[in-house]
Amino acid sequence: MTNRRTFLRSTTQALVSSFMAFNMSAEVVAQNQIAPLTLNNKVDWEQVRDLFILSKKKTYFNTGTIGVSPKSVLDMVYEQMLKVETTGEYGKIHGVRSQIASFVKVLDSEICLTSNTTSGINIVAQGIRFKRGDEIIITNQEHVGNALPWLQTAKVKGLKVKVLALAPTAEEILHNLQKLFSHKTKVVAVPHITCTTGQVLPIKEIATLAHKQGILLFVDGAHGPGMLSLNLTDLGCDFYAAACHKWMLGPKGTGFLYVNQKQQENLIPCFVGSGFGGDWSVTNKEGYLGKFIDSAERYEYGTQNTALWLGVAEAVRFMNELGRENIEKRIKDLSEYLKLHLLDIQQDKIDLLTPGESGSWAGIQTFRLKNISHDDFAEKAMSQNIRVRKVNESNLNAIRISTHIYNSYGEIDQLITLIKACSMIR
Description:
The protein is α/β, with parallel strands linked by helices.
């Protein structure tokens, strides 16, 4: 009994200490926030960097995997978690849907809240009304999150998968795509920006080609929102799945799915719960389910984490305050600076895999050193506190660099110095 009491007492004390430490750190974060300075729409990026608690000792070039949230997002999540736990009041998140919709220029009713890009992809892949023998087109440079849902659907429903070979230019991609179309093609599923080389695909033109043939267009938008100032209505795709925890700088485990309102009656909700919005009965002989809610909210189900979604709302507010065009320009300026330095290295030393065509790249540059493996380079980078991402997809065995607003030209100089040093290794 004594041991049990001692254990409970020590455990309680540890929990209280941890809570106080977390509370204290949140207060410190709040006190140290510095409002970003803007003058004639020009942002002081050094001051913006101070809005993130990312260690100044670490150079972080992996936003394409996980973005780093600003302090204000952390504060919002903490405050809302504390509110729920101290009051038991769970709160509503409908306003977040509107903010995301405004961020990507679509209707509120076209946004479904998800946990990540992959969950949105699965909703669409499983919900499209396929017939056996229908064809799906995907690319040869897919993230596993976009490849497997379509491959699994093809396996279960007896569909044929065709592979679009990506090319260095938009014109070539469109040409290759047209050659794959047939009367059985049901959907084209492509990334907006590839996870491999960071190539930006001509989505608006792909949508036009597909729709002329009566083909649906799904876009894996993991890298789109936050890197680019998006207008999904103008892009013309039918479905667009994205994450809020990458370039949007939101809490981890949040995302959204855009479903064009014209397609909502054609996309079957395969996972259902409290969000479907209609009447239901276990005894009604005329039908167990009533009509689904007239919005993309029909694809949501189960309990949502209010704190995380209010964190997303704060991330959207943060990016809007800085200016989406300012952010996109900063990301591209840093990326171009890196690209130019990579091109300056002797071409017998390095392969730059990201296309050079204007409009076909944005915030990602991927390269391969010819005399050192990507594994060894990544290890050397980590030894200098530089975080990069290895690209094993499509057997590229390369290095991917993602630039965001918390990066600087000085950090890129540090990376270039390492690249040049490694390129001289024999």
